[in-house]
């Protein structure tokens, strides 16, 4: 499966991602309504009802199954990108099902019920664990980053940014830094363990853009407090 992204990209209108499937290649698309162009035999696309778990987790009824040879283009909303990840047998990453856009044949999904503590931390009862070999496509906000966990040295990651983490990871919901720092940050996951954690940067990109667009409290104060501040301070 060959995938090209960002061929038609605009910050306000989103991105188009094109999938090219070879003969008999099969990919399952969980957001088929995003397909805006298709080239191939009409029989190459077969939509069907999701299973009950899929309907509940995605809050959608239909998935699209595409069989090669074919080529199709999916439209992604502004601020979102598609991250393709190659999986092999033995992967122990737990994913949030809402991020899953597509997956190839050879991949099967298993439901992992979280511990009561992790349910409280993640506000979710189950995660998805993939088995088999193939590719999955994750719909994320902004760039996807990854860091390797350490068994004893903790890694702090904004809880809203985490996409996937190893099943063996130890999680604590916390903040860090001095009093001022801890009072002005979102809750973070304090993680230790082995393996790689994936997280997205889109939420922070939007926040920085808002800060840069804002003239700031100090500038507003100086403009109002100083004589002729409104004239000299723009």
Automatic annotation (TrEMBL):
TM annotation in the entry: none
InterPro entries with a match to the protein in the record: AIM24, AIM24_sf, Trp_RNA-bd_attenuator-like_dom
Pfam short name (any one): AIM24
Domain of life: Bacteria
Protein name: AIM24 family protein
The organism of origin for this protein: Paenibacillus enshidis
